[in-house]
Amino acid sequence: MSTRYEFTLPRSFQPAEFLGGRLLTRADDARWLVSQIVRKIASRDTDPWGCARLHSDVLGRVMHKNTVSAVVEALEAGGAIETAPYYAGVKAKGYRLAKRYLGDRSVQVPATDPRLIARIEAERERRHADEQRTRWLPVHYALDREQQAVTITQDADAILDGLPDHSRLCQHVLVSRIQRRELPFSVSSTGRVFNSITGLKRELRQALRLDGEHLGSVDLVCAQPALLSMLLLAKTHPNGPKHRETYKHYPGPCLPACPETGPDFSAFASLACGGSLYDRLMADTGLDRTSVKLGLLRDVLAKRGKYPSVVETTFRREFPSVYRVIRAVNRQDHGELIRLLQHTESWLVIGLVAPRLLGRVRITTLHDAIFSQRQSIARVADCFRDVFRELGVSMALKCEEN
Questions:
Q1: How large is the average pLDDT for residues 352-379?
Q2: C-alpha distance across the termini of the chain, in Å
Q3: Where are the beta strands (DSSP E) in 11-127?
Q4: Would you give the DSSP letter of residue 1?
Q5: Residue numbers of the domain that contains 101
Q6: Checking phi first, is residue 50 left (phi over 0); if not, alpha (psi -120 to 50) or beta?
Q7: pTM over 0.70
Q8: Does 247 score more than 60 pLDDT?
C-alpha cells in the first residue's frame, strides 16, 4: 500500500492551467515541484535573492525524468514560477513562486500518482539518512526532541488575516504545520538548523507556546557583522571553550588566508560587536534599518556581479580593509563568506550555548537566537555571556518577551 503524501500548495494553484495535452498526466510532478518551492521559501531556505535552490539530480530522481524540463518550462511560461540560473559545481538552479500566489492561504492536496509517491518516500529516506549520518550531532537529536513542546494558539489565525498579502501564504504553511504537529528538523551543510519555527514572522511568534508557556528570546545584535569581527579577531580556540558540557567534536570556524586588516577594523569591530553598525550605516546612507540589513547581506557580504549600491559604497569608504577581506574570501564564489558566517553562527549557538541549557530549561533555536520560556530568558543570556568570556569576545545581545 502506498504511503500517503500531501503537497503543500497555494489554494489557487491548478496544474491544468499550465500543463496541456499529455503533459497533464504529470500534474502530480508539477504539484511536487511547487510544493518544494513553497516549503523552502516558507522556511527561508533560500539564497539572498529569495530563490529556493533545487538540484536537478533530485528532480530527476523524483519526477518523471523525461518530462522534468517540459514541466518546469510550462510552469515558468504560464507564470506560476520564476527561475534563476545554476552554476555548475557551485549552485543549483533557483526557483521562486509567482507573486500571484503569495497572498493565498495554503492547502494540503493528496498525491495520487503511486510511482511519484514511492519516489518521494525513497528520496526523503535517502536524504534523511544521509543528513543524519554526515551532519547530525548529539545536540541536534536533543533539539529535535525539545521542539516537540512547541505549540501555537488559535490567535495565529487572526494574526494571519492581518499580514501583508505577500507573506500570507508562507506564514500559513508554517502555522498549519505546527497545528498538524508536523515539526520538521533538518541540518544544512553549514550546520544551520531548520525547525518548526524557522521563517515564522515576529507577529506570529506571539502565539507560540513552549510547554504551554509564553516564549521569550535572546539573539545576537548585528549577528553577521559581529561574527565576522570575531573571526577577524582570531580569538576562537580551535576546540571551542573548555567546558565539560560543550560538544567538543563540533567543528569550529576558520577564515581562509586573506589580507590583513587596517586601522578601520577597530571601528568596525566596535560597532558590529556593540550592536550599532546598522545604526551607523543608516545615518550615513539615509536608508531604513531593513534596507541597510538587506544591503549589507546582498551587496557587501555576498555581492554577485557589478551594480551600484549605496550600502556597499558607504561600507567600502568607512571600512576599506574589512571590505578587502570580504572580497578576498568571496573571490571564487560570492557565497563563500555567507556560508562561513552561517557555520560560525551554528558553532556558537548550537555547538556551544545550547548544550549548556538542554535538560535545564526548555529551548528551541532560530539561527542566531535561542527561544525559551519567559522566566528562563535571563539564564539563556547568561549562557551566551559565559561563552563570550571563554572566547575572549563581547557581543551585544537582545532579550525579548515575544
A1: 97
A2: 45
A3: 52-54, 81-84, 93-97, 106-110
A4: -
A5: 6-130
A6: left
A7: yes
A8: no
